[in-house]
Amino acid sequence: AEPLREGYRLMQSLLAIGSGGVWGSGYGFSQQKLFYLPIQYTDFIFSVFAEEFGLAGGILLLVLLATYATLAFWVALKARHAIHQLIVMGAMIFLVGQALINIGVATGVLPTTGLPLPFFSYGGSSVIASLAIAGLLVRVARETNAAEVVSLASRRRPAQQTPENP
User: Counting beta carbons within 10 angstroms of the beta carbon of residue 85, is it exposed (0 to 12), middle (13 to 18) or buried (19 or more)?
Assistant: First the structure.
């Protein structure tokens, strides 16, 4: 494909995803990072990720997104006030939706939009906005006592009592 023709970015993106195979080429061994794929650090970061970590890494990323969405939904269900529910659901839809749009662009399902992948793409403003939105979710979880969704205290065993440790 010629770099100035239509479909060049998508073809290079699909080539990167396909060349990753099942387990990937390894962290830092992406061939598409050598400027074959335009805008590889923002719009097509999923292609580079899938090339380096393969199908297993791509599925793991989707599982992490689903886990984030599930935990956010659980926090929204536990929230007592409607405003907290709206904040949490908005934060979840924003981050997960943006990630799914970015993945859809990289795989050719959606047209190129220019949205970065939250927490992954290069650029400080995107990362700061993603962290601020995730912080809203954590704040609502703490205020509504929904932080017990992933409580580690219930998983800890009580200390064994010994003669030296009454």
Answer: middle
Three-state secondary structure of 20-62: CCCCCCCCCCCCCCCCCCCCCCCCCHHHHHHHHHHHHHHHHHH
119 in a domain, yes or no?
yes
Range of the domain at 118: 8-148
Report pLDDT digits (tens) over 36-86. Answer: 777 777 778 888 889 999 999 999 999 999 999 999 999 999 888 899 999
Per the CB < 8 A criterion, the answer to whether 132 and 61 are in contact is no
Question: Residue 10 and residue 1: Cα distance in Å, rounded?
Answer: 10
Tell me how many domains the chain contains: 1
Q: 100: closest CA among 90, 86, 87, 110?
A: 110
Looking at the domain assignment, is residue 161 inside a domain?
A: no
Q: Considering the domain boundaries, does residue 59 fall inside one?
A: yes
User: What CA–CA distance (Å, rounded) separates 85 from 94?
Assistant: 14
Query: pLDDT digits over 77-124, tens only?
Result: 988 889 999 999 999 999 999 999 989 988 989 888 878 888 888 878
With respect to residue 160, please indicate whether it lies within any of the assigned structural domains: no
